[in-house]
Design the sequence.
């Protein structure tokens, strides 16, 4: 096999095993990682489970040399080594695929691969590099266009390219941080299956951080479970049940239960109607075309699809961030232009993806952010000229306690909150008061179990109290759990519709992948 | 003006000749700014660097009698100005646009202060290549008498276009310009790359200044630049950070700039002042036509403070 390798110690294409012994990491008085010993033999597929803040990323960062562990040691292939920088980790053939993409978006795939090498010639002979890349890609299980700028790739393709990049650099041990969060079920299965093949051929060892039990059960050999910095369990995958793993992860916290759902009335009033909508997408090259989409009061309509198929543009049109060419959006029987006044009279609320960037002013305080919907109104609903700080603060205090937002004070900047708490704060703002139409996009991306359970429960509760909910999500499990009906969006169109109960994931996945 | 025998044909000819003559400073400043912006920094101070370069080149050429020594001196001073800009900008919370405006005023002031004694002396001119020698028409000869720096600029545009794709340095520059984090993850020091890119940008802008004082118009005075340094920055955006695009855009600007004098030379006496504004009107029209509220600027370096606004 041909690998352009820039690491020194292990053989290219030969898996290495690693072992942590009593790994401990303290930040001041806080112990983020407490005496963790995990053994990952060469060629195995190991899963690392744990809630947010359980110490998973701390452990991984200690292994990868981002942190210097306060105690304990690490051995690679049975030899104790000191890894004090990411560069040293690369020397031992250890690599990592991050949850956020580290590719340079304006460079092509090929340029990204070549420039990430440690030795890059002063003048790049592209003819030679292309041949080398082509022969390298031949033995890669992934098919990715390498000559297009990375920004034009879909999220799934970027994720594959990240993995390919690590293999191109000749890594023998890979950390995958929630690698399937942006993929369709079929893509995820395919990708993990191929990675698993690599481990079975003893070419690669994998440590995967995941929240998805079915992936862990299907692909991993062994699991380790962390809670509050301690190793609380683990073992071979066949010997542990999902329930046991979940119990170990969460401890004795009780998860929020979904309310039992009230059936959708047959004569439910349509709240949102989208008719013959047409608009160019972000690149201006493709069009978004929604012929008809209706969401009735008291139902959740889910929109499935791989990111980059027009979901973002659709939400932007619905909330007035993007003009449409033709067609119209009707809310409560009237044409809706998404002005502040219209949103207020029709009780339209919006929870975008990445709420810190898209629904908050990050440097403003928690209480100011919570007041975005009402700061210019008096108690009696009339317009006010002067802000009432006192009213904003008491409003914020109520919402913070109602939605269990963890914040140092109402006056701290909202950017200082953790992801889950930002999401809770935005939910608090958007779900308080009467809600007729709720548009939600990827509400649980990157959040831990208890936050996910609670946020989903809140959305179902809003539905049960009569709100029409449009839920756009890349997580099919989430859509199956929450929706009443599911549409699949692909290439800017709604290509398939099915009731969620009894829906066939295979068919949905095929439509997501564009086979329709 | 009837004795030339060219009549109205003189207008396109004058525009072509003018385009080549006027565009050279645009070419150098915009190529310099392209390098700087591709690294994720904006240097708005190039107008100051341009004028300071013009003064330095003229002073050195007048003193030593060597125009090329003058150009080299201008490049040196320009790179120092770039380094100062780059060095200040590496500190956290420093805004490169504000620093650029300060550096522009500083460069202008310094040039006028140090340049006072050099308004009178005559400096030698940069050499040009008489490509029009075959013709007996003086206008054709004049239009095709092309300065060496124009060819150097054209070659530089091609070299940069190639280098951005085919050299390690080019790729590193683009990585730094697109994502500071990705660059750090690769072990590249973004601040250092930007410092070098700003220094090179400054030295190229100073060559543009040297052209102004040593060839066209060919003297040193305080009104030597009519904002070429600033226009060139708009030109970079319009050319979408593409060196060859910068070259073509500079020609277009030069041609538009030559419209007024060309009309004047064929005897159009009314309203030709309006045509002096042509390059600026052209900038506005093109920028409006090529931008859209619905999509980000294609090709804009991701780490540029412009794109973050």
Sequence:
């Amino acid at each position: 096999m041909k690998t352009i390798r820039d690491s020194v110690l292990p053989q290219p294409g030969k898996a290495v095993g690693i072992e942590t012994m009593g790994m401990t990491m303290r930040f001041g008085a806080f112990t983020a990682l407490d005496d963790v010993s995990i053994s990952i033999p060469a060629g195995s597929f190991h899963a690392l489970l744990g809630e947010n803040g359980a110490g998973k990323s701390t452990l991984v960062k200690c292994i990868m040399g981002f942190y210097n562990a306060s105690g304990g040691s690490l051995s690679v292939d049975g030899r104790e080594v000191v890894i004090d920088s990411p560069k040293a980790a690369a020397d031992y053939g250890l690599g990592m695929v991050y949850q956020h993409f580290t590719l340079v978006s304006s460079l092509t795939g090929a340029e990204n691969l070549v420039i990430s090498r440690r030795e890059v010639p002063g003048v790049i002979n592209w003819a030679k590099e292309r041949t080398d890349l082509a022969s390298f890609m031949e033995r890669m299980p992934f098919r990715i266009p390498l000559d297009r700028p990375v920004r034009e790739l879909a999220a799934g393709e970027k994720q594959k390219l990240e993995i390919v990049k690590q293999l191109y650099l000749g890594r023998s041990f890979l950390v995958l941080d929630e690698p399937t969060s942006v993929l369709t079920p079929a893509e995820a299965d395919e990708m993990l299956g191929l990675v698993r093949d690599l481990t079975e051929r003893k070419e690669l060892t994998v440590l995967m951080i995941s929240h998805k039990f079915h992936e862990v059960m299907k692909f991993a050999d062994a699991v380790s479970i962390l809670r509050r910095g301690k190793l609380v369990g683990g073992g071979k995958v066949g010997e542990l049940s999902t329930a046991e793993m979940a119990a170990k992860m969460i401890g004795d916290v009780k998860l929020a239960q979904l309310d039992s759902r009230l059936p959708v009335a047959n004569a439910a009033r349509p709240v949102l109607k989208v008719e013959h909508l047409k608009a160019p997408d972000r690149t201006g090259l493709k069009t978004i075309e929604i012929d008809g989409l209706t969401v009735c009061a008291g139902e959740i309509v889910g929109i499935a699809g791989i990111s980059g198929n027009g979901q973002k543009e659709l939400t932007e049109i619905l909330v007035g961030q993007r003009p449409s060419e033709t067609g119209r959006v009707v809310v409560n029987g009237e044409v809706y232009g998404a002005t502040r006044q219209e949103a207020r009279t029709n009780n339209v609320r919006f929870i975008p993806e990445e709420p810190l960037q898209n629904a908050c002013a990050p440097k403003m305080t928690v209480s100011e952010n919570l007041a975005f919907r009402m700061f210019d109104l008096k108690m009696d609903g009339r317009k006010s000229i002067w802000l009432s700080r006192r009213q904003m603060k008491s409003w914020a205090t109520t919402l913070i306690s109602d939605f269990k937002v963890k914040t140092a004070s109402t006056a701290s900047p909202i950017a200082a909150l953790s992801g889950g708490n930002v999401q809770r704060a935005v939910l608090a703002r958007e779900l308080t008061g009467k809600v007729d139409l709720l548009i939600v996009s990827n509400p649980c991306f990157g959040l831990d179990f208890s936050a996910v359970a609670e946020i989903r429960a809140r959305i179902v509760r809003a539905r049960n109290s009569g709100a029409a909910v449009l839920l756009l999500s890349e997580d099919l499990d989430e859509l199956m759990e929450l929706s009443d009906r599911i549409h699949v969006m692909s290439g800017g169109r709604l290509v398939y519709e099915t009731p969620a109960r009894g829906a066939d994931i295979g068919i949905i996945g095929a439509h997501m992948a564009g086979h329709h | 003006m009837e004795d030339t025998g060219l009549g109205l044909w003189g207008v396109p000819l004058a525009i072509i000749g003018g385009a080549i003559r006027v565009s050279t400073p645009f070419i150098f400043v915009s190529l310099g700014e392209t390098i700087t912006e591709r690294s994720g920094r904006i240097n708005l101070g190039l107008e100051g660097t341009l004028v300071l370069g013009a003064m330095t080149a003229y002073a050195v050429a007048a003193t030593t009698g060597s125009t090329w020594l003058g150009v080299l001196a201008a490049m040196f001073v320009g790179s120092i100005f770039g380094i100062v800009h780059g060095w200040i900008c590496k500190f956290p919370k420093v805004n490169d646009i504000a620093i650029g405006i300060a550096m522009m005023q500083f460069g202008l002031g310094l040039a006028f202060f140090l340049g006072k004694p050099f308004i009178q002396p005559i400096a030698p001119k940069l050499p040009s290549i008489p490509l029009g020698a075959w013709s007996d028409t003086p206008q054709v000869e004049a239009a095709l008498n092309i300065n060496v720096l124009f060819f150097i600029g054209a070659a530089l545009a091609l070299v940069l276009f190639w280098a951005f794709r085919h050299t390690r340095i080019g790729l590193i520059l683009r990585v730094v310009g697109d994502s500071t984090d990705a660059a750090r993850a690769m072990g590249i020091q973004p601040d250092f790359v930007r410092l070098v890119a700003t220094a090179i940008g400054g030295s190229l802008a100073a060559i543009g200044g040297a052209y102004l004082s040593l060839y066209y118009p060919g003297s040193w005075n305080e009104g030597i630049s009519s904002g070429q340094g600033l226009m060139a920055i708009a030109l970079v955006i319009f050319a979408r950070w593409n060196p060859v695009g910068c070259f073509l855009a500079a020609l277009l600007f030069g041609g538009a700039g030559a419209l007024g004098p060309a009309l004047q030379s064929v005897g159009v006496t009314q309203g030709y002042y309006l045509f002096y504004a042509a390059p600026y009107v052209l900038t506005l029209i093109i920028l409006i036509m090529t931008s859209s509220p619905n999509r980000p600027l294609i090709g804009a370096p991701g780490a540029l403070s412009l794109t973050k606004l």
In short: The interface with chain A takes residues 165-169, 171-172, 174-175, 177-179, 181-182, 185-187, 292, 294-296, 299, 301-302 of chain B (CB under 8 Å).
